[in-house]
Write a structure and sequence with these properties.
The protein is an alpha+beta fold. It has 26 helices and 22 strands. The protein has five domains: about 60 residues, Helix hairpin bin (Helix Hairpins, Orthogonal Bundle); about 230 residues, D-amino Acid Aminotransferase, Chain A, domain 1 (2-Layer Sandwich); about 70 residues, Nucleic acid-binding proteins (OB fold (Dihydrolipoamide Acetyltransferase, E2P)), CATH 2.40.50; about 140 residues, 5' to 3' exonuclease, C-terminal subdomain (DNA polymerase, domain 1, Orthogonal Bundle); about 70 residues, Rossmann fold (3-Layer(aba) Sandwich), CATH 3.40.50.10190. Helix 1 packs antiparallel against helix 2, helix 13 packs across helix 14 and helix 17 crosses helix 18. The longest helix has 24 residues.
Length: about 675
């Protein structure tokens, strides 16, 4: 074996560097440059080399994210600087009071603040030694926390090593600490709960609990499977902040390739702070993660030090808490909803009530176990909560109704009358009639859903009519709908009918992963669909795969594999697949070729919030049209898309003369052919 050890070492280091860069693009910037398959290939090369030369394996290698066996417990570690909580403000008046106090203590008329999201997760201290990730410690009691290093390592957006040249350029020591928040994005949370439900496990109440649970498990493999994210918001060297301003710290963290929210804002007056709080109050629902408020920090670090701490919290920061989206109301009735897999979900019909600006009149009760756990009956007064776009849920009974009566699961399907079935050991009650119209309706809604085929105009009202009129009997029928048929529906003008047809047509070129997810195979969530698409590369290969072949796919266990095999062995489903093929849907994954190239070669930068889409969606659209998204403005930027409350990127774009688009212009550009 001719290669010298140093040549091998150099080769390994080069591979690691490449992989780190791709991890950064994928997990931090959400802007991958290569396909997942190409990424896996690089990883496998590295794994093979490391297997051959085990003495060259280092803990900062990308292969070492998930490794080691479950542990018996956690060790406690003392924090170099206490991890304090924050004082809360529940009104703008309290914020004004905070500002007055700061200015008074500082003896200044004006104080600059940074306003940023208050991530609803759990705080974490990441310690780096020699530029290499050494330790992850929870907040604990603030003075000491728990060492959860192997679990933190499994979070892909946590860099295992930072670039030493960047450290040098920023004049930062190679031993440093980064504090931030571990969160679970809403989509991951929803998928996790769906999975838990399907597998009969317990639901998590909110993403924060789910994230905390995933970090404090003893087996890092579980953490790895939970899709957590880390957002950085503080940089320390020893017990000091090594830069002049908090905003410098945020910028330095981003340069060191930590994930930093791009939505923080420098505010020169308290009014700007209040505007920021107000702007994000409704917009926060569109964020991919939950925030429970805004953190306001004095920007000048010297002033921060001057202001110091009380026993519990810094005097230089405050957390403005948004009012909780909760309300009390009365359960008028409990009905059941038949889902796409035939599962009956009890739904509380509520006395309509305003929750965070939205009228709520229904709330899911999930399943019979949940009804029993809550002890809720018809007539009770309940506390409900609405988090983000999630359907509201009942938190607890606040007062039992005088004439309360218990809910009983119906013996027959309320839609088709078929006898209801409850499998041994399962929580769910099901309608097993394959032709139940309720199932078809829900399946169509799932098929059209934003994470599936993304046919926006196909909502419940339209689906009801399409199914009731017999125009659509399966997914494939959507693709043969005619304009006259759609225009004949209630609440459907010719223009919207045409729009819907266009959307249906456009959905044909969706990725294979979306199609697999849209089929609604039991236990196949979004992520599994993605992994299946990457592994098999075509629907036909997936449809003919055996349980053994399926088990080779990461994260696919025997239960999922069996469910897929069963789905494709069902003659009705085989027929459906053929119909979809005839309709011209994409059955193969050719990522590069598929992308339409309307925005090819164009680089976009976003600043401020958009009204009609989340930042994430807008970026996804740019990428799917062949464009690129960058996080900062340079001369190479082609367009800066400016929403409301834009940040400094807007000013930079103006000074560099980069083309600036408002939201409407951006939408136009997307729509142009
Ligand atoms: P609380 O737990 O309500 O006292 O709030 C303090 C906690 O807010 C901190 O310990 C952090 O975990 C968390 N937090 C979330 N986002 C931020 C942020 N942007 N800056 C500082 N702390 C934050
Ligand atoms: Zn039924």
């Amino acid at each position: 074996m001719g290669e010298s050890k140093s040549a091998v070492r150099a080769k390994i280091e080069k591979l690691r560097k490449t992989i780190r860069e791709h991890e950064y693009r994928y997990y931090v910037l959400d802007d991958p440059k290569i396909s997942d398959a190409e990424f896996d290939k690089l990883m496998n090369q590295l794994k093979a080399l490391e297997a051959k030369y085990p003495d060259l394996v280092t803990p900062d290698s990308p292969t070492q994210r998930v490794g080691g066996s479950p542990r018996e417990g956690f060790q406690t570690v003392r924090h170099k600087r206490p991890m304090l909580s924050l004082d809360n403000a529940f009104s703008y008046d309290e914020l004004r009071e905070f500002d007055r106090r700061v200015r008074e203590l500082a003896g200044r008329d004006r104080v600059e603040y940074v306003a940023e999201h208050k991530f609803d997760g759990l705080s974490m201290s990441l310690q780096y030694e020699g530029g290499v990730f050494a330790r992850g410690v929870t907040r604990g009691d603030g003075t000491t926390g728990e060492d959860v290093t192997p679990n933190v390592r499994a979070i892909r957006s946590v860099p295992l090593r930072v670039d030493s040249a960047t450290l040098k350029k920023l004049r930062l020591a190679a031993d440093f600490e980064v504090r931030g928040e571990i969160i679970m994005p809403r989509s991951a949370f929803e998928e996790l709960n769906r999975q838990q439900e399907e597998q009969g496990g317990k639901r998590f109440a909110n993403p924060r609990n789910a994230a905390a649970g995933a970090v404090r498990v003893l087996d890092p493999a579980i953490t790895a499977s939970r899709r957590l994210d880390f957002y950085a918001y503080m940089l320390l060297a020893g017990d000091r902040v090594p830069v002049k301003r908090h905003s410098d710290a945020l910028e330095a963290l981003a340069k060191l390739q930590f994930k930093v929210s791009r939505d923080w804002k420098l505010c020169r007056t308290l009014d700007e702070v209040l505007k920021y709080c107000e702007a994000w109050e409704s917009r926060r629902e569109k964020l991919p993660y939950e925030i429970d408020g805004i953190v306001i920090k004095v920007n000048d670090i010297a002033l921060q030090e001057e202001l110091g701490f009380t026993a519990k919290a810094p005097r230089w920061a405050v957390a403005y808490k948004y009012p909780a989206h909760q309300a009390t109301t009365v359960v008028k009735d409990i009905q059941v909803n038949v889902g796409r897999t035939g599962v009956l979900t009890p739904v509380a019909i509520l006395e309509p009530v305003q929750v965070g600006g939205v009228t709520v009149s229904r709330s899911t009760l999930h399943n019979m176990d949940e009804v029993q756990r809550l002890g809720v009956q018809i007539g009770d007064a309940v506390l409900i909560e609405r988090a983000g776009e999630v359907i509201p849920h009942v938190l607890k009974v606040v007062k039992e109704g005088k004439n309360r009566r218990p809910f009983v699961m119906p013996k027959e399907c309320p839609v088709c009358g078929t006898k209801i079935h409850k499998a041994e050991g399962e929580v769910a009650y099901r309608c097993v009639n394959a032709a139940c119209p309720a199932k078809l309706k829900e399946s169509l809604l799932h098929f059209a859903g934003r994470h599936a085929m993304n046919i926006d105009g196909l909502g419940a009202k339209i689906v009801d009519q399409l199914v009731d009129k017999g125009l659509v009997k399966d997914f494939a029928d959507l693709y043969s709908l005619k304009l006259e048929q759609l225009a004949g529906l209630e609440r459907m003008a010719e223009k919207s009918a045409q729009n819907l047809l266009d959307e249906i047509e456009a959905s044909k070129s969706n990725s294979l992963a979306r199609l697999i997810y849209a089929l609604g195979i039991p236990f196949v969530g979004e992520r599994t669909a993605q992994l299946l698409a990457e592994h098999f590369g075509s629907l036909d290969k997936l449809a003919s795969a055996t349980v053994e072949e399926l088990s080779e796919v990461p994260e696919v266990g025997p239960k999922v594999a069996a469910s897929i095999v069963e789905f494709f062995s069902e003659p009705a489903n085989r027929k459906l697949v053929e119909k979809l093929r005839k309709a011209g849907l994409r059955f193969t994954e050719e990522r590069k070729a598929r992308r339409d190239s309307r925005l090819a070669g164009k680089t976009f930068v976003f600043t401020g919030a958009l009204a009609h889409r989340s930042r994430e969606q807008a970026e996804e659209l740019v990428v799917s049209h062949g464009g690129k998204v960058a996080s900062s403005v340079s001369k190479k930027t082609d367009y800066v898309v400016v929403g409301t409350e834009p940040g400094s990127k807007y000013d930079k774009a103006k000074s560099l003369g980069v083309t600036i688009l408002d939201e409407a212009q951006f939408e136009k550009l997307l729509a142009s052919k």
